[in-house]
Write a structure and sequence with these properties.
By secondary structure, this protein is α/β, with parallel strands linked by helices. Helix content is 21%, strand content 32%. A hairpin with a 2-residue loop joins strand 27 and strand 28. The model has no long low-confidence stretch (mean pLDDT 95).
């Protein structure tokens, strides 16, 4: 069992792992799965946006990169024009220098787009979006419409304050919900509608404050009512009042205590380990994976086949390794390469194939270090570079820590692998001292408890988060949604609301436990000190169906 070169803990490499590595001609990893993921996530800044100038036009833009980057930052639309040519930054391969040193030169000089929104409309305040429109502060925003304040929201409409929600409409404060409609304050639900305050429910409608129900209608706090009784009770409950919402949340927590759960969240899976797995087969040590097969050490991906160590990729990927935000075939050690094939060590490349060590290319083939080659030259030179990287120990490693343009605490790495400033700096990552901006214009406005008492004047107010003290505002689209759905105005800023939703999810770490019923060994993200009763999948299905 090898030891991780970063954290020094031992980690497993199985025979099937080695078969995969041999197939892709990469060596055994030198770091454990957690440290490998941590390094990749240091390249992912979803939530921190800054005002700066476009280095091409000089105009003021919103960007995920703060001032002081080594590379130019262009307005999103200007980056895609022909006003600049990424091949102008090309380098000759120098076998007297390490490949990573040469790649660092490219990473430090080739322009980047300020935000990553592809094929989007009216999503200026979103980042890392694809095929979305009319959205605001949604990060990981894929094929959405009219959504606000979310993270990893895919193929949904009119969803506000949601986390890991897919194919859903009119949802509010929902976490890990799939194919739901008109659902609020709910978690781990599938195919539920016209309901509020549900946990771990499937195919329920017209339910309120329920836990663990399947195929039910007209239930309140897990008790059955007639249609008339249910509707009368709902008329008496005003969820537009903050006090009512808080009271229901407290009652719901009592029902969760002792609730029977499956060892992992998800459905329609065969031979899997991890959590939040949907329509998967032979998927191991992975989290938030959908429609995938023969995958290991992946998180937040969809439609993957034969891939290891990949993150944040909603599209189809096959035969790939050690990548972040990719779509395509046979991608090794790449970051943000979309609709590509046969790419190695490339970053921010789009519609490219057969490229090695390139940055910022569009619709190119047979390029190395941003320099154009013929097919014959490319096929002769790339194997030499790979052999050279094997001799230096670089081949198979993801980009080094100092390649990341972000400070550690700006990235998703700090969400899943939280470090102190001292720990991050010791490991080679930068740290950014975040400060709450003092706003002298902050109002003394008091938010009404009931949405019916909120006037349009709230749109002019600068509110203060009750937890963090950060200033925040209510936008017109948001106020309209709260009124339509009869929801109270939030007292927390968007960042704090996101942090609270993240805290509701199980950590991405598997623990060894025994099924509470049959006593067989299981792997689960539920720690022993949690209140839920954890069953293996077989016992759970027998118990609840």
């Amino acid at each position: 069992m090898p030891n991780c070169k970063q954290c020094h803990s031992g980690f497993e490499i199985t025979d099937s792992d080695r078969q995969f590595y041999e197939k892709l001609d990469v060596p055994d990893p030198t770091m454990c799965p957690d440290c490998r993921m941590q390094r990749r996530l240091t390249f992912r800044n979803f939530f921190n946006l800054y005002h700066r100038k476009c280095d091409l036009t000089g105009k003021r833009i919103l960007s995920m990169y703060d001032q002081g980057t080594t590379f130019p930052v262009f307005d999103l639309h200007e980056w895609w024009t022909d006003k600049w040519d990424p091949l102008d930054y090309g380098l000759e391969v120098d076998f007297s220098k390490s490949v990573f040193d040469q790649l660092k030169t490219l990473h430090d000089t080739v322009p980047r787009m300020g935000i990553m929104n592809q094929q989007c409309e009216n999503t200026d305040y979103c980042n890392l979006s694809l095929n979305s429109r009319n959205s605001y502060l949604v990060f990981g925003n894929v094929e959405n419409e009219d959504c606000c304040y979310g993270h990893v929201v895919w193929r949904s409409k009119n969803c506000f304050d949601c986390l890991y929600v897919e194919q859903s409409d009119f949802c509010y404060e929902c976490v890990d919900c799939f194919r739901c409609n008109n659902l609020s304050f709910s978690q781990n639900c599938e195919n539920c509608s016209d309901s509020k305050f549900l946990v771990d429910c499937v195919s329920c409608r017209d339910c309120f404050g329920c836990v663990g129900l399947k195929n039910k209608q007209y239930y309140i706090f897990n008790e059955s009512y007639s249609k008339e009784e249910y509707e009368q009770k709902m008329k008496e409950l005003n969820c537009g009042d903050r006090a009512v919402v808080n009271s229901v949340k407290n009652r719901l927590a009592e029902l969760v205590d002792g609730h029977k759960v499956k060892s992992f969240h998800g459905f329609n899976c065969e031979n899997v380990t991890g959590d939040y797995l949907y329509n998967c087969k032979n998927v191991f040590d992975s989290y938030d994976v959908k429609n995938s097969e023969d995958v290991r050490y992946c998180t937040t991906v969809g439609s993957f086949k034969d891939a290891y160590d990949c993150n944040y990729s909603p599209g189809t990927v096959e035969l790939s390794y050690n990548c972040v935000a990719v779509i395509g075939f046979q991608l090794r050690n790449c970051h943000t390469c979309v609709y590509g094939s046969n790419l190695d060590y490339s970053d921010h490349c789009f519609n490219c194939k057969d490229c090695f060590g390139c940055v910022g290319l569009k619709s190119k083939q047979y390029c190395i270090f941003n320099k154009q080659y013929s097919k014959e030259e490319y096929e002769k030179l790339v194997p030499k570079i790979i052999e050279y990287m094997k001799s230096t120990g670089e081949w198979g490693e993801f980009f080094p820590a100092d390649f990341s343009p972000f400070a550690y605490n700006e990235t998703m790495a700090n969400d899943y692998c939280t470090l102190s400033k001292e720990e991050a700096v010791r490991l080679g990552w930068r740290w950014k001292d975040m400060q709450i901006q003092n706003n002298n214009k902050k109002s003394e406005y008091t938010i009404p408890n009931n949405i019916k008492d909120v006037g349009d004047d709230i749109l002019k107010q600068i509110l203060e988060c009750e937890k963090s003290g950060k200033p925040y505002k209510i936008i017109p689209q948001e106020l309209t949604f709260y009124r339509q759905q009869n929801l109270p105005i939030p007292r927390l800023c968007p960042d704090q609301r996101h942090a609270d939703r993240m805290a509701l999810r199980n950590p991405r770490h598997l623990l060894d436990r025994k099924c509470a019923k049959c006593k067989k060994n299981i792997k689960t993200t539920y720690s022993p000190d949690r209140p839920e009763v954890v069953y293996c999948e077989q016992c759970y299905l027998k118990e609840v169906y």
